[in-house]
From TrEMBL:
Gene: rgs13b
Positions of the UniProt region annotated as Disordered: 1-22
ATP-binding in keyword set: no
The name this protein goes by in its record: Regulator of G-protein signaling 21 isoform X1
Listed GO biological process terms: negative regulation of signal transduction
Segments forming domain RGS: 72-188
Length: 198
């Protein structure tokens, strides 16, 4: 039986198209870790500059305040520096829709004009609640539909259920990630170093 010569000869290769092993420096986990560490250090520098350069000592960011952020999400969000740092962390992870929704709802509850409330309720629904919205939050269908109904005649409480769900998601997911993040660790280390030097 004759064998075609093309069947046993090596395939020609085109220059530049031969598979190359990945460079030894290419490691996504390590690269992500370095990026997060660098991000943490850069952010920490910006945060320290803003929060510790205040002229009033009582309004400065302190190590004790920063350590207290780890006690609860409520404590973190109750601190203006904690809230700013947490928001920045979530933005760095492209997952800031929950905190933005929660804060928007807090502002919404302060509206007293029924016209403004109606307009703002529609905007919140379109931006965060409606399916496929730009910053869609992760809530169940039933809650989404209930809000859709309530927005037609809005009250200060029409987003309360979604706000509770979003708070729970942040408490179980985003908040623990923040506490484990290089950003938070680096900020604590830097403030501890500053304390030791003073």
């Amino acid at each position: 039986m004759a064998v075609d010569s093309w069947a046993i000869s090596p395939r020609p290769t085109m220059p530049g198209l031969t598979p190359q092993p990945l460079p030894t420096h290419f490691n996504m986990d390590r690269d992500d870790c370095r990026r997060n560490e660098t991000l943490g250090k850069n952010l920490m520098c910006r945060i320290k500059c803003v929060f510790t350069s205040s002229s009033a000592p009582e309004s400065r960011l302190s190590l004790e305040d920063t350590q207290q952020w780890s006690q609860s999400l409520e404590r973190l969000l109750g601190s203006k520096y904690g809230l700013a740092t947490f928001r920045t962390f979530l933005k760095s992870e492209f997952s800031d829709e929950n905190i933005e929704f929660w804060l928007t709802c807090e502002d919404y509850k302060k509206i007293t004009s029924s016209y403004k409330m109606s307009s703002k309720a529609r905007k919140i629904f379109e931006q965060f609640v409606e399916a496929e919205s730009p910053k869609e939050i992760n809530i169940d269908y039933q809650t989404r539909e209930e809000i859709k109904r309530k927005v037609r005649s809005p009250t200060p409480q029409c987003f309360d259920e979604a706000q509770k769900i979003v708070y729970g998601l942040m408490e179980r997911d985003s908040y623990p990630r923040f506490l484990r993040s290089e950003m938070y660790k680096t900020l604590l280390e830097s403030l501890a170093t500053d304390n030791a030097q003073t």
